[in-house]
UniProtKB/TrEMBL annotation:
InterPro entries: RNaseH-like_sf (IPR012337), RNaseH_domain (IPR002156), RNaseH_sf (IPR036397). SUPFAM superfamilies: Ribonuclease H-like. Residues 1-50 form the RNase H type-1 domain. One of its GO terms (molecular function) is RNA-DNA hybrid ribonuclease activity. This is RNase H type-1 domain-containing protein. It comes from Rhizophagus irregularis (strain DAOM 197198w) (Glomus intraradices). It comes from the Eukaryota.
Length: 111
């Protein structure tokens, strides 16, 4: 299965937990422990990956306090990494546009 980002999901869970004053305890279950509840959650997760109805839910159904969007798409990843990736791409573009890397520049422009 492909690894998917779930920052919006965790943000929604945090908002619902706070809004409804829920007390949630996360319990780490060892892998292959044959825990019935863990097996049920695994089955639901696998079903969500194969069921297009479950995996393509619009972001409007999320209960996140705010959803950052870029080109009308929700940013479902670490915001700092997202901004760093944009900055890195912009820096690479600036580097590529330097005269020494441009095909129209002459060899005398190169240090």
């Amino acid at each position: 299965m492909l690894k998917e980002f779930n920052h919006l999901l965790w943000s929604s869970i945090r908002a619902i937990k706070s809004h409804k004053n829920l007390d949630v305890t996360l319990i780490k279950v060892p892998a292959h422990a044959d825990d019935t509840l863990n097996n049920h959650v695994d089955a639901l997760a696998k079903a969500a990956h194969t069921d297009s109805h479950l995996s393509s839910r619009p972001s409007l159904e999320l209960f996140a306090p705010c959803i950052l969007q870029f080109n009308s798409l929700p940013v479902d990843m670490n915001i700092r990494k997202f901004i760093r990736d944009i900055f890195d791409a912009k820096t690479l573009l600036t580097l590529a546009l330097l005269p020494r890397f441009n095909s129209s520049s002459s060899t005398s422009d190169i240090d």
